[in-house]
Design a protein that fits this description.
The complex is a heterotrimer of chains A (503), B (101) and C (481).
Chain A: H1 3-24, H2 30-56, E1 62-68, E2 71-76, H3 79-102, H4 109-128, H5 132-150, H6 156-187, H7 206-223, H8 232-235, H9 241-250, H10 252-268, H11 270-275, H12 279-298, H13 303-323, H14 327-358, H15 369-372, H16 374-387, H17 394-408, H18 412-438, H19 460-478, H20 486-497
Helix pairs in contact in A: 1-2, 1-4, 2-3, 3-4, 3-9, 3-14, 3-19, 4-5, 5-6, 5-10, 6-7, 7-10, 9-10, 9-14, 10-13, 12-13, 12-18, 13-14, 13-18, 14-16, 14-17, 14-19, 14-20, 16-18, 16-19, 17-18, 17-19
Chain B: H1 3-24, H2 28-49, H3 58-89
Helix pairs in contact in B: 1-2, 2-3
Chain C: H1 6-24, H2 26-51, E1 57-59, E2 72-74, H3 76-102, H4 107-126, H5 130-149, H6 156-184, H7 189-195, H8 202-218, H9 228-234, H10 237-263, H11 269-291, H12 296-312, H13 314-318, H14 323-358, H15 369-372, H16 374-388, H17 394-408, H18 413-437, H19 451-469, H20 472-478
Antiparallel strand pairs in C: 1-2
Classes of the chains: A mainly alpha (503), B mainly alpha (101), C mainly alpha (481).
Chain lengths: 503, 101, 481
């Protein structure tokens, strides 16, 4: 096996092997566990950096493994994979730090970090999957490895949420499997190639292909929280904050959205999808989700639930970008994959900080939080401003491209949807910021567990990650023209899906 | 009607009544006897149907002998279990919450 | 290298150590069992290597040819089943050793009966004529009943019910043999196969029906499944594992073998569909009943009822369908048999571990076992993944192959059945796993477990996972039908 074959596998192993070891560690071996976690995360970043460098120079990294003749597990580091993989690995590193701080003293940490590592392994596998079978393989693995994280606390309410989570994701997986096997039956093999491979089938198959598309999108749509399949997401908020951060910024929802990207661009092909008349319905579905998510968010008092509905809305920006015909919409959708990730993780980190430090779970309890926890609230504000697509933030860049993509695609209604969504975002984020910064704290905090020490308003490990990701939000927004920005990478990918990129 | 066919039909009749007895009877001893009747029916078919030239067929005789041995072993096991059940419950039938075949 | 005859050895070795174990008693029986099982596994491995790719091996004991002699033959399917039997038996032997050290009742008959069971099963997989299949089938049944009865006073009724059901099944089969012999004058499979054609007399169809019905009763296919839950659920855990993992597969193997070798010319596609419908009913009913169980072992037993249904989907998918579909169906079903064998053995082993530690197996009170026996919980989880047919397990691979077969043969309704079955399986698997995540009850007492109780089950579960990642060699051995 050459280095080029092995590298994708190494990326996977860098979290899989530490995960196995962590499962077997006794609870008290804190240092060892932390070391393994960080070593794995760091090593993964190193491998990915190497791959990025190689891919930019035109190297091919591909790992193929035949389980049975005719059925291959393929890991390929193409441009689209690198986008998602880099996001996952970087945010995993941050979340690991955060989780170590957050779960200080909690029971079952070995179990938690073991499944945490499995979860990232599955996510990276989803990112690098080179054919539809491999995608499904890791996609279901993701379901299995995230369930223990959702039910980690072991309370009755957690278990109920876990049941709902399973019901949705397993049903979605079953629908996805049906679509996948159907397509395999029609085509023999379904590799991910830019431009898609389905178009070789003649017009006689058009109706079947529409049905298969529906099945595939419904299958991944559960994780991507498309309305009406989004019901599990707000309920999954019972999980600890690191889990919510990971699930919502990186693993589960992004895997679903990523699935839609792969299906539209690399299985069906953008033009073929449009030709079958599937782009418009997908765009409408995305639009409905965007508005519905934001509307529901408006009425939530629980902070994490508000963020959850915000996620439902924001992830569909990606779907909208994918569904809008033309490279600009594509760029918008792809870049928002990254941008939404870093913005949302910031918000969830902060929400976790409020809960852990002051016992704040509701928006109504946030009066005066800015005075007590200025840095956290600053990070929160950056994230919120990004959600509102304020200038200099990552959200601004995504919205710009999405809006222009809508115009180019001749779908002005989508521009209105995006505008309305920004307004709604402002409507549910600005009051939080107002309360935090400008209102005085009335009663005592619900439960002040972590006292202030100097300028360290909370545990250092809880404070650093949201600050780092907030900086990233600003950087992605202001430095988007830099060749290594997510935007440039998205442009590169879009270029390969279409013949050329205007502008 | 050749003797072979007569034997075969008798065998099938015995088999059927054996099956009916095994399923429908509730007394365990009767079930076990019914099983034996069933077996005998099958053996009869085996010997009867295979007569070709009027000569005894060694293969089928061998098979029936083997079958009888197996049948005896099975009957012995069944009787032993039935006896144990009798000692435990005082009845030669299956306990109430289960049902018959 | 001495040329050893693998086929007779693989039958004689367990026979030998079983007899010795009976004489030596339980104190030494386990040593014989472990040594013997290891040797058997090596033999099975060698045989699979030799057979792989279509080179069937035939052995004629004593040099007496058929029809008066008994010929034994090993083709791909037989070699794979032999691997399954020895592969599951060896870890279970280690497990049983540790289990009976804590729970001595039933130990004194376990080792000899297990040895006889394995000898009979090996002989069954290697038999090449339908009468020898009957004899070995009966032997398997008797040994299995004995094992069930070893569970003590509570299992006597279950054992007797099992015995009568199994005798009904094999009696029906015997009548079929008698009819076939009467019609064709031979019992050897190759000769029969050449004579059974579409234009066969109705007696052949009657025989086919009787034999298949008999096997359906013995494999507990819906609606003949009534005997299985009490027998498998009530027996000691090592016995339950052997029964669900192996014994059930023996009668199914027989049905599939006869179907492929003899009855295909006779059967119409509608026969296959009817059997498939029964299989689907088994999947739904078994899963539904499993969900309602309060005890872990009964849940696992009903799960066996459900999983048997998947096996019988082989019939509609392989009857007069395209060769590619039939090939996928055979591969899928074989893999399903292996995946289920490994996973079910693991699950019962885990259930036994729970019972040893807590003294009961009530599902509602499983909370807290993650802390005290994590290996067991992982065993249940990994085995569960295989049962659900989710990646990366052998169960998933089997499901994929069966779905593939359904697509190629155009029978999409079985896909719906399989996928719905997978979801129902997930429901009852997670019913168990959920409780593993809950906090412990205050009153529960957990006795510590020796390593050997937990790790064989874990190994079996991991094997079901590993098979899902690499099945190419196995399918190679299986060859084409």
């Amino acid at each position: 096996m050459t280095w080029n074959d092995a590298l994708p596998l190494l990326v996977l192993s860098s979290s899989l092997l530490p995960g196995f070891i962590i499962f077997n560690l006794p609870e008290e071996r804190r240092g060892m566990r932390t070391a393994l976690n960080l070593a794995g995360a760091g090593l993964k970043l190193v491998f990915i950096a190497f791959m990025l460098w190689g891919v930019a120079r035109g190297e091919r990294y591909e790992f193929r493994y035949a389980i049975v003749p005719g059925l291959e597990l393929v890991l390929r580091a193409d441009a689209l994979a690198m986008l998602f993989v880099t996001l996952s690995a970087a945010l995993w590193f941050l979340t690991t730090l955060y989780a170590i701080g957050y779960l200080e003293g909690s029971p079952h940490r070995s179990r938690f970090f073991g499944f945490f590592s499995l979860c990232v392994t599955a996510t990276v596998g989803v990112a690098m999957a080179g054919n539809l079978f491999s995608f499904f393989f890791f996609y279901e693995l993701l379901t299995l490895s995230t369930y223990p994280l959702v039910v980690h606390r072991g309370k009755a309410s957690t278990m109920k949420a876990g049941n709902i989570y399973l019901a949705y994701t397993l049903a979605g997986g079953a629908v996805l499997l049906t679509g996948v096997v159907w397509l395999y039956g029609l085509l023999g093999r379904v590799e991910f190639v830019p431009g898609g491979s389905v178009s070789v089938l003649g017009p006689a198959y058009a109706d079947q292909l529409r049905l298969v598309f529906g099945l595939l999108v419904a299958g991944v749509g559960v994780k991507a929280a498309l309305v009406p399949l989004h019901g599990w997401l707000p309920k999954a908020m019972v999980a600890p904050a690191p889990v919510s951060a990971l699930l919502h910024a990186v693993a589960v929802v992004k895997a679903g959205a990523f699935g839609i990207v792969r299906i539209v661009y690399e299985v069906y092909g953008a033009d073929f999808t449009h030709g079958l008349g599937l782009s418009a319905p997908l765009a409408v579905l995305a639009g409905i989700t965007i508005l519905w998510g934001s509307l529901r968010a408006l009425f939530q008092d629980d902070l994490k639930r508000r963020l959850a509905y915000s996620t439902v809305s924001q992830v569909s920006y990606i779907v909208l970008g994918v569904a809008l015909v033309g490279p600009i919409g594509t760029i918008g959708g792809l870049v928002h994959l990254v941008h939404q990730g870093i913005m949302k993780i910031t918000l969830f980190f902060c929400a976790g900080n409020y809960a852990e430090t002051l016992g704040i779970h509701k928006v109504s309890e946030m009066n005066g939080a800015g005075r007590r926890m200025p840095l956290t609230t600053l990070a929160f504000s950056v994230g919120a401003l990004g959600m509102m697509s304020a200038p200099f933030t990552a959200g601004y860049v995504s919205k710009h491209y999405l809006t222009e993509g809508a115009a180019v695609a001749g779908a002005p209604w989508a521009e209105w949807v995006l505008l309305a969504s920004s307004v709604l975002n402002a409507a549910y984020f600005l009051p939080i910021l107002y309360r935090a910064w400008f209102k005085r704290q009335e009663d005592a905090w619900p439960e002040e567990s972590i006292p202030r020490r100097g300028w360290l308003e909370t545990n250092g490990l809880l404070l650093a990650p949201p600050l780092v990701s907030a900086v990233a939000v600003l950087a992605a927004g202001s430095l988007s023209e830099h060749p290594w920005s997510p935007l440039s990478w998205a442009k590169l990918i879009a270029e390969r899906q279409y013949v050329s990129v205007e502008r | 009607m050749t003797p072979g066919l007569l034997f075969a039909l008798t065998g099938i009749a015995l088999f059927s009544s054996g099956v009916a007895g095994l399923i429908l009877q509730t007394h365990l001893l009767r079930k076990i006897i019914a099983f034996n009747v069933m077996g005998s029916g099958a053996f009869l078919v085996l010997v009867g149907l295979a007569q070709r030239s009027g000569e005894p067929d060694p293969v089928s005789q061998a098979m029936v002998l083997t079958g009888i041995v197996v049948s005896i072993a099975a009957t012995a096991l069944a009787l032993a279990l039935a006896r144990r059940l009798l000692n435990l419950t005082g009845e030669m039938r299956f306990p109430a919450e289960g049902q018959d075949d | 290298m001495i040329e050893i005859e693998l086929i007779p050895l693989i039958i004689l070795v367990p026979l030998l150590w079983a007899s010795l174990a009976f004489i030596a008693g339980p104190a030494h029986g386990w040593k014989l069992a472990l040594g013997g099982s290891t040797l058997q596994l090596v033999l099975a491995w060698r045989l699979a290597a030799e057979v792989g790719g279509g080179a069937d091996r035939v052995h004629v004991p004593g040099g007496w040819e058929a029809p008066l002699g008994i010929a034994l033959s090993a083709d791909g399917l037989a070699a794979v089943m032999l691997l399954l039997a020895q592969g599951v038996a060896l870890p279970l032997a280690f497990y049983a050793r540790a289990y009976f050290a804590r729970h001595p009742e039933g130990a004194h008959t376990f080792w000899p009966l297990t040895g006889f069971l394995l000898a009979a099963m090996n002989a069954l997989f290697l038999s090449a004529d339908i009468f020898n299949l009957y004899v070995t089938l009966e032997l398997v049944g008797l040994a299995a009943v004995g094992l069930v009865a070893s569970g003590g006073a509570g299992s006597v009724a279950a054992a007797l019910r099992y015995l009568l059901a199994t005798l009904l099944g094999s009696g029906s089969y015997l009548l079929g043999v008698a009819l076939l012999y009467g019609a064709y004058g031979t019992v050897t499979l190759p000769e029969l196969a050449s004579q059974v054609t579409e234009a066969s007399p109705p007696v052949a169809m009657l025989a086919a029906g009787l034999m298949l019905a008999g096997m359906a009763v013995k494999t507990a296919l819906f609606p003949f499944h009534f005997w299985l839950p009490p027998a498998h659920g009530g027996a000691p855990s090592p016995v339950s594992a052997l029964l669900s993992a192996l014994v059930i597969k023996a009668s199914f193997y027989l049905a599939a073998r006869l179907w492929l070798a003899l009855f295909l010319p006779l059967a119409t596609p509608s026969w296959g569909q009817v059997i498939g419908v029964l299989g689907a009913a088994a999947i739904f009913w078994g899963s539904f009943m499993a969900l309602r169980q309060a005890r872990l072992k009964m849940l696992i037993a009903y799960s066996t009822v459900a999983q048997v249904g998947y096996l019988f989907l082989f019939f509609p998918l392989a009857t007069h369908t395209e060769p590619a579909a039939a090939q996928s169906a055979l591969q899928g079903v074989t893999l399903q048999a292996l995946a289920h064998g490994l996973a079910k053995a693991a699950m019962f082993a885990a259930a036994g571990a729970v019972i040893l530690s807590t003294g009961h197996d009530r599902i509602m009170q499983l909370g807290g076992i993650t802390a005290h026996m994590p290996v067991t919980v992982f065993t249940l989880a990994i085995a569960g993944v295989s049962l659900m047919g989710l990646p990366p397990s052998a169960g998933f691979l089997a499901k994929w192959l069966l779905i593939d077969s359904a697509i190629v043969s155009g029978q999409w309704w079985w896909i719906v059945v399989m996928i719905a079955g997978g979801l129902l399986t997930a429901a009852y698997v997670f019913k168990v796993l959920r409780h593993a995540f809950l906090r412990a009850e205050q009153s529960e007492v957990y006795k510590p477990l020796p390593r050997l109780v937990e790790w064989p089950g874990f190994l079996l579960a991991v094997a079901s996972l590993a098979l899902g990642l690499r099945a190419a060699e196995l399918l190679n051995v299986l060859g084409t039908p």
